[in-house]
Amino acid sequence: MQIKDLAIGDGFVYLMEGSSKVKFYVLAHNYESGLNGNGRTLFCRESPATSGPWSSVGEFGRRVDIAWGVTMDGYTCSIYDWLTTTYFYKFAADVKGWMGKTRYSLEGSRFVTSIFTLSASESVYDLSSRPEGTLLSEAARKRLENIFTDFGTNIWTRTQSHNVSYHHSSSDNDYYYDGVALSGVSRNDWGRFSSTYGHAQRWGYLPCFTLPETLYIDKDGFPTVNQPPEVTSDVGESGVALGEKNEPFTLPYTVTDGDGDPMTITEKVNGVALAVRENVASGTELTVKCLSEKALFQQILNGENTLVLEVGDGKTTTEWTATFTKNVTSAVLSLAQPLTADDTITVAALTLEGSFPGDMSLTVELSNNARDDVPVWENCTDIQSGEGRAFVHHAFANKTAANGAAFNYKVTITRGASGVGGNITMIGGVIG
């Protein structure tokens, strides 16, 4: 996903303010395209970064007539000063580079900074006589409403009020303009703020800036210039439901990286890593190992399961997910290699430990010539079982072993009608 794909009002990215992770919401795409061209997306902070007055206070309490970005007698608009000289430098160098310089309207003219606040024209009403940008969409103003409500007090804009305040001292009379602040949500026109004005009140500073719409967003929500890896599969998009599975199955997928970076793939089921592939080239077609290989599939428990393919290129990580229900109700257990003996095997006894529900089916087959091309498997009838242990005793009828005496077993367990599951934790025994 790229920034251009984020929804206005709800879409967001994370940025670091020093060591703090902060969310920033999308307010507009192609912000002031007449000034900036297309491709710049406007963001605002999830809440005001701090509170303060509209402007500084001069010598002996004298307030100076100050507008956004204008310095008089050594004093400047406090909001502008803090955003451009303090707040901007909380970000890493690459982020500051992405912010660049944004052109925006101020009193009918152009202004350029990296960080700014919204104007009254953008958030309150259309100011045809003092154009300071276009009124934001309802979705954007709804986000502002949520920010305003959560913050609990007024939020400054960059707009200077036409209201003039008066200050009198023994030595002079001083007149100055107030700043405009968002003061509430208008009930007469949904989604538009009402405003007030002031000067020395400590109201909120809401930082805004633009980022290139072409930036990508990594899995953690941070913008990046690196193209994240992509995962595609014939079975569907990420989040696909694969249904019920009762045996290992094949799930094909392909990984690509637009930058050509080698990738590391981690296959996880329910958060547990079951397989890892390293140095995978872009365009490689694969199948999920933990689902197709019997030994790995056996490690997955019955029930609802979530598969995650975590693909990283060393810079960003992409996740592709699928869900499936494992419903294996029977299993066959056997030795990978038979146990050999020096003489004919005539009897055998097994002990099985685990959980054995009363309606579980348990079948045991034994062989005393397990190395032969066609071993003889004999069903055991002498099986005694309880809730946690089962015993098997058997005398072999077979007396031949072309490739020498060798013992093996096949234990088949099947869940009963009750649906209560069981398990085998140990198989041991003796042969004679």
Helix-strand layout with pairing:
Elements: E1 12-17, E2 20-28, H1 33-36, E3 40-45, E4 50-52, E5 71-72, E6 75-76, H2 78-85, H3 93-99, E7 102-106, E8 109-113, H4 120-123, H5 138-151, E9 155-168, E10 173-185, E11 193-198, E12 203-205, E13 208-212, E14 216-217, E15 223-224, E16 230-232, E17 240-245, E18 252-256, E19 263-269, E20 272-280, E21 284-287, H6 289-292, H7 294-297, E22 303-312, E23 317-326, E24 330-334, E25 339-340, E26 347-355, E27 361-367, E28 378-379, E29 382-385, E30 389-395, E31 406-414, E32 423-431
Parallel strand pairs: 17-23
Antiparallel strand pairs: 1-2, 2-3, 3-13, 4-12, 5-6, 7-8, 9-10, 10-11, 14-15, 16-18, 18-21, 19-20, 19-22, 22-23, 24-31, 25-31, 26-30, 26-32, 27-28, 27-31, 29-30
Structure keywords:
432 residues; mainly beta; Immunoglobulin-like; 5-stranded antiparallel sheet; 10% helix
